[in-house]
Structures are given as structure tokens and as C-alpha cells.
Amino acid sequence: MEGTISPLCLRSSSSLSYFSSNLSLDSHRTLGFTTSVDSLRPTNLVRRSSSLRMFLSPPRGSLRTPTISVEEVRDVPMPKVDKSGRLSSPRAARELALVILYAACLEGSDPIRLFEKRINARREPGYEFDKTCLLKYNHMSFGGPPVKTETSEEEDELVRHDENESKIEAEVLSAPPKLVYSKLVLRFAKKLLAAVADKWDTHVVTIEKISPPDWKSAPAGRILEFSILHLAMSEIAVIKTRHPIVINEAVDLAKRFCDGSAPRIINGCLRTFVEDRAATPTPQALESKQEVPV
């Protein structure tokens, strides 16, 4: 099978499929979304319209990053864990916040309440979480073009690797958050979600201006992309994280969870957002200009 294209290119992202699988079938089929970016907000931020409904497809499949050999697939940097064995990186917090916000938009629920619900959910009797999964969980598993293999054996090995990675993702993201994430990560994720809620109205207007027309014409198919934009813009505006860091993180999230040109578009949207903020005088600057020297 020399020169074949591995079916890895058909791999779907289990990272977000977990949340969508927990929603009811009806909520998948007929979500109360109107055809505007503003309508994608959770219900605590907007009153949903029951007259207009839109079919929403499940999360889109992601394509794996180009790979030359099986060994290179295995040789990827693993996320850091703290002394208790829990994920402790800021990337983990941003990923958790994205998954929660995505689920809140699908359910039409309050993202903070959904976060608290997951944190305080009771464990099923007999449930045990294998913490060794966290050492294998890879935040940097990005999408990309189809992988070309030289032999059927190499293709089979890549498929097995991919299936195993999907199982690990499902195990990690379906586990109780307190078993997966450090306290610092949980606090940061909640802080990000609170920032999104605080700036939602303002950023909806901004996203309407800077996002491409095809995204705005079918917003229910771009929930992931809009969620990434909201998280990044809110982190810059409220938490004051340096914008190069936030933009890089947002692009990486888009590479991991979105498809096509989404990473490039999100990069452009956020750079426009930053430039517009820099060109707009702050309230403090306006007040200082209005002060009359004595």
C-alpha cells in the first residue's frame, strides 16, 4: 500500500464530542439559535428565540498534523502535571474553559453554572480514574493535512496510535474535573468564563465587525470558532494577559478543535481586535486629556 493516504484524516475530535454526547438528542437536532452571532450566547446572557431553529451538525472532524514516521508521532511533548498528578498548565485551563463554553452554547445554559455543575457532580459508584492517562494526554495534537504512509504496517500502526489517543482524550475529558485539573487550573478556567460573561455584549458587536461574512451567515456551524474568539478577547480585555500569548494560545486551540482556515482567520481577527483596542483611547486617557492644568 505504498503511497496510501491513512484514514487518520477522518479522525473526529473526541475532546469536544464528550460534551456533545451528554446533550439530549433533541438539543443536538433543534437548538434555539437564530441566524446571528449574538444568538450563540448562553441563556443567562440572552433570551433565546423559540421561533427560529437551526439544525446543528456534530463537531467537525479534525485532520492530523503531517507525519513522516511512526516514531515522530510518538515523539510529542507531553503536558506538565503537578505533584498530585493533575494537569497544571495554562493551556489546560483554556482548553477546559473552551469545552465548558462550547457545551453552554449547545445547551443554552449558563457557563459558570455549568462549570460548577461539573465540578460538584457526584461520582458514579465504583468509578475509578486512571491518572496515568494524564501523562499520555496531549494538548498539542493538532489538525493538518492527511498523513501519507509508505506501507500497510505503518498505516495500521498510525491508526492504532490515533485510536488510542482518542480513547485517552475521552477518558480525560469525561472524568470529574477535580481528578484531572489542579486547583490553579480550575480557578483560571472559571476566571476565563467569568471574563467572557462580563464582556459578552461588547465582544458580540466586535465579532460582528471583524469576523468573515460566511461565519456570520451560519453562526451555528461556527460555535467553536466564536467561543475561541470570545475567550481570547476576554482574556486580553479583562485578565490583561499579554496579547501575543493569548493569540498564540487561541490559534493552537483552533488548530486542535477546528478545521480548514479557522486558525488563520482567528489569528487575523484577534490581531485586528488588538489593533483597534490600541487605537481607541481608554477612559483614563480621555479623563487625563480633559484635565485643565493649574
UniProtKB/TrEMBL annotation:
Q: Please give the superkingdom of this protein's source.
A: Eukaryota
| UniProtKB keywords | RNA-binding, Transcription, Transcription antitermination, Transcription regulation
Which GO BP terms, alphabetically?
DNA-templated transcription termination; transcription antitermination
Q: Does the keyword Metal-binding apply?
A: no
Every NusB/RsmB/TIM44 domain range: 182-274
Instruction: Give the molecular function GO annotations.
Output: RNA binding
ATP-binding found in the keyword field = no
Return the similarity comment.
Belongs to the NusB family.
Tell me the protein's name: (rape) hypothetical protein
Species this chain originates from: Brassica napus (Rape)
